[in-house]
Amino acid sequence: MTGFDAVLLSYDEPMANSLHSRLQRTLGGTVKRLHGVHGMRRAYRLCAEVVDREQFFLADGDFAIDPDFDVAAVEPLDEGVSMRVWRAVNPVNGLTYGYGGLKLIRRSALREMGEAVDVLAALPGRIEFAQRTAGITRFNQSPFHAWKAGFRECAMLAWGSEYGMADGDAHQRIQAWTASHSGEFASFAASGAREGVAFAGEAARESQRFDNLNEPAWLRERFTFAHGDQAVSG
């Protein structure tokens, strides 16, 4: 391990244990684990309290790191930069961008985080997007998890990216999500994407409804209502 701590943040992802072990092997040291915390904003803030260093790697519970990721080559964040995001390969639609990617983040930035639906978009300071791909985001571990990924991401893209993404880029990504056809449970990711766009339209005049995107119970209920109880929990 380099001079950075590392945390895997998981909630109910079926493969979280094995992906945690993989992350430890690749980074070459102990990766701390925060699991099952209710409330996404609260969970991210708690990550700042389990590390000992100001800058640390943060991985979601469905992130599969590339075993060839060169951790020794990672440079610390510059002054004024709160987070760096490496790209991840999307297994159902072929996109490769920051969604689900590995992060290097400041503990102090998490402690000062503001309010946003896409929680980490509310960090103070600048956010860097690295061009290198660090792994695969394995969100498609069950029908529910695949659906949830498509629903949340496309609802936020249709609403308007809180990272300042151009409308044209957001539209292209929505198109790719709604056409998802590769990998396990791709059809559920595509359905979730379409339903997420529709939800963004429904909530256009009631912005507070977007907070439901960070509520696991609400998301599971919406999935079950539309698709039956096909969810698989870890």
Any overview of this molecule?
The protein is 37% helix and 20% strand. The protein is of the alpha/beta class and 234 residues long. Strands 1, 2, 3, 4, 5, 6, 7 and 8 form an 8-stranded mixed beta sheet that branches. α1 (16-27) links the parallel β1 (5-10) and β2 (32-35). α4 (143-159) runs antiparallel to α5 (167-178). The radius of gyration is 17 Å and the shape is globular.
Strand residue content:
15-25%
- Distance N terminus to C terminus? 28 Å
The beta-strand count equals 8
Give the topology string: H per helix, E per strand.
EHEHEEEEEHEHHHH
Judging from the principal axes of the Cα atoms, what is the shape?
Answer: globular
Which sheet architecture does the biggest sheet show? 8 strands, mixed
Helix content: 25-40%
Q: Kindly report the average pLDDT value.
A: 91
Number of helices: 7
Poorly predicted runs of 5 or more residues: none
Radius of gyration: 17 Å
Q: Return the structural class.
A: alpha/beta
